[in-house]
Amino acid sequence: MTAQILATLLPVFLIAGCGTLYGRFRTPDIRSINTLNMELFVPMLVFAVLADGEAPLEEYVGLALGGAVIVVGSGVLLWPLVKWLKLNPKTFLPPMMFNNSGNMGIPLLLLAFGEAALPAAVVLFIVEMLLHFSLGLWMLSPGTPLWRILRMPIVLASIAGLAVNLAGVGLPGWLLEALHMLGGVCIPLLLFALGVRMLDVDFGDWKTGVLGALLCPLSGLVLAVPLIWLLGLSGLQAAALWVFAALPPAVLNYLVAEQYRQEPHKVASLVLIGNLGALVVMPVVLALVFGYVHPAAG
């Protein structure tokens, strides 16, 4: 089991480490790289996975619902604690809710469970992204029009992919292969960009960062336990929800906080210390998943 955990995690942190090392000696335009990734490569991957007629998307409805409940439920669960600790909910709660399902979630699930996990990883990523750009933006700025979400390339790719799948339209193999190849670029690039962002860690507010590193996976896992039972998830889908629930805060939380001037330095601490905390949290979660969930069973 130890070898399996290392085989899953080492490539993730090695690629992220390359990003950190490169960023230490160079100054890559990481914002442009992320824009290219989120507007081209990730949508290509999303469309390719959803449009593939061999992916029975109706089987992932329960998983999508579970992911949505974990995102929203984490905020609801932690709200009383945030008020008791007199933290700013607009600063603290979004990183606890919107996790790193892109930079870390997709690569981690693929490395842990193989190509069979790609539809589950993409479904959870889409759920998290849709909620982040609707509920998440509304939390920071209640006047934000929710229709803006329809302009996102990922949303357009999701709608198009679902339409093709549900209509039973068979895409030629060469087209799907090209889309998968383009989409495959996003996975190492997500990890590399995460590594570059690690250079921005601000330890000035380390106590809040450590608190977030504990509460983000804890709140998700507390919700995942009853959800897996209530939704009847098993095998690969149960394993995917476990991993999703334990993921650290998304780097995107920092970019959004910066855009809305919502204490971006504190959010950066929450995000980046939380991702460092994944070095401890994810091996434990993967040990539980490999030992008890039996992903190959479903």
Automatic annotation (TrEMBL):
Keywords of this entry: Cell membrane, Membrane, Transmembrane, Transmembrane helix, Transport
InterPro entries: Mem_transp_PIN-like
Residues annotated as transmembrane: 6-23, 35-51, 63-85, 152-175, 181-199, 211-232, 238-256, 268-293
Pfam families: Mem_trans
Record carries keyword Transmembrane: yes
Membrane-topology descriptor: Multi-pass membrane protein
Annotated signal sequence range: none
Compartments, record wording: Membrane
Top-level lineage group: Bacteria
UniProt KW Membrane keyword: yes
Main subcellular location of this protein, as a coarse class: membrane
Entry-linked PANTHER family: AUXIN EFFLUX CARRIER FAMILY PROTEIN (PTHR36838), SLR1864 PROTEIN (PTHR36838:SF1)
Name used for this protein in its record: AEC family transporter
Organism: Halomonas mongoliensis
